[in-house]
């Protein structure tokens, strides 16, 4: 019975891996993995990178996206950007939040304090959609936990890929997704039809018979392929599922001679660096206690190892005088 259950369990796992992989191959784009300072069992956040990432958020992302689950004090606490407290107090005063009710029960707005959270940009979702032509900019507080990578290899290797991620403690899928998204803004791919109506990718961007398609639906039973064109108000992104995203390229204005964000620590001012820094910052925003949890985890493991050794010594001492 145990053997039968084991076989059925393995079969179910393989089927689940196959279905997930099939979905990924059909709909999910491939996104490269990056090396992160906070990756793995020993990884910790890079304070300087988090500070740069917050700068990118403030100068590029904050005009559309809220960060409402993060309090100003979090920017000061160990394990995060660790900005000077006075600087964060000055930053908080730039924001207005609801104050405690006065003697008449009225709630008025006033400068934020360290204990306050970043205020939301919009009164509600409908107000946000009205401003952005129907699109709803997500709050970025937990975006790195809400997004991830999908396996896109052969189905029979999926279990081994999962095992590898478990052993390596891979949890940076959200950060890798954000970097891939920032690099995913490209021109809409061009295709050309053959005599049978099949669409083939080409390098030309204009000319007779050239079609720009965000994706292609292959025709069945000899039917011609369907070119899925970019919808009005949308932007092509190779890393976004469906390849159509309402958000414009946040770094479209960047150039080598006129960098969009100016770093003060000498770090290269490139789109790739911006993408990695904002991804690291949003990963911290999604999990501000990662450093402390990992430190506590290793302390617990060390404690359990010592306890195991003491128990073994005690067992040998107690049973040493008993004849076999």
Notes on the protein architecture:
- There is one protein chain.
- With 324 residues, this protein is mainly α.
- It folds into 3 domains: 13-70 and 118-185 and 247-288, Cytochrome Bc1 Complex, Chain D, domain 2 (Orthogonal Bundle), CATH 1.10.760; 190-229, no CATH class; 293-319.
- The chain is built from 9 helices and 9 strands.
- The strands form 4 sheets. Strands 4-3-5 form a 3-stranded antiparallel sheet, with no helix packed on it.
- A hairpin with an 8-residue loop joins strand 6 and strand 7 (226-228).
- Helix 2 (47-61) crosses helix 8 (271-286) and helix 7 (173-183) runs antiparallel to helix 8.
- The longest helix is centred in the C-terminal third of the chain and has 30 residues, at 290-319.
- The two termini are 36 Å apart.
| CATH-level-2 architecture of the largest domain | Orthogonal Bundle
* The CATH C-level class name of the largest domain: Mainly Alpha
Which structural category do the helix and sheet elements fall into? mainly alpha
Distance between the termini: 36 Å
Strand order of the largest sheet: 4-3-5
Please give the count of helices.
9
Compose a concise summary of this entry:
The protein is mainly alpha-helical. The protein is built from 9 helices and 9 strands.
Write the layout of secondary structure elements.
Elements: H1 2-27, H2 47-61, H3 85-92, E1 96-98, E2 109-111, H4 125-131, H5 143-146, H6 158-168, H7 173-183, E3 190-193, E4 199-202, E5 210-212, E6 215-217, E7 226-228, E8 235-236, E9 244-245, H8 271-286, H9 290-319
Antiparallel strand pairs: 1-2, 3-4, 3-5, 6-7, 8-9
């Amino acid at each position: 019975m145990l053997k039968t259950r084991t076989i059925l369990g393995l079969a179910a796992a393989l089927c689940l891996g196959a279905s997930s992989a099939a979905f990924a191959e059909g709909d999910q784009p491939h996104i490269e993995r990056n090396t992160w300072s906070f990756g793995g069992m020993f990884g910790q956040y890079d304070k300087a990178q988090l500070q740069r990432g917050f700068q990118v958020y403030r100068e590029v992302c904050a005009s559309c996206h809220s960060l409402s689950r993060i309090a100003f004090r979090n920017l000061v606490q160990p394990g995060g950007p660790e900005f000077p407290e006075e600087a964060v107090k000055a930053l908080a005063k730039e924001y207005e939040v609801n104050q405690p009710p006065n003697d008449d029960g009225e709630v008025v707005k006033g400068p934020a304090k360290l204990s306050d959270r970043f205020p939301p940009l919009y009164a509600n979702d409908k107000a946000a959609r009205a401003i952005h032509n129907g699109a709803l900019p997500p709050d970025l507080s937990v975006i790195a936990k809400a997004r991830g990578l999908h396996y896109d290899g052969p189905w029979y290797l999926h279990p081994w890929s999962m095992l590898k991620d478990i052993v390596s403690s891979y949890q940076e899928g959200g950060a890798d997704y954000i970097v891939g998204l920032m690099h995913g803004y490209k021109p809409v791919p061009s295709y050309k039809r053959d005599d049978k109506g099949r669409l083939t990718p080409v390098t030309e961007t204009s000319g007779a018979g050239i079609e720009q398609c965000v994706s292609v639906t292959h025709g069945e039973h000899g039917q011609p392929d369907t070119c899925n064109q970019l919808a009005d108000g949308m932007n092509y992104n190779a890393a976004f599922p469906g390849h159509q995203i309402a958000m414009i390229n946040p770094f479209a204005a960047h150039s080598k001679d006129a960098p969009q964000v100016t770093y003060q620590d000498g770090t290269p001012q490139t789109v790739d660096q911006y993408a990695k820094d904002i991804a690291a910052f949003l990963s911290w925003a999604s999990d501000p206690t990662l450093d402390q949890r990992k430190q506590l985890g290793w302390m617990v493991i060390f404690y359990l190892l010592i306890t195991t050794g003491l128990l073994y010594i005690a067992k040998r001492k107690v049973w040493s005088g008993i004849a076999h």
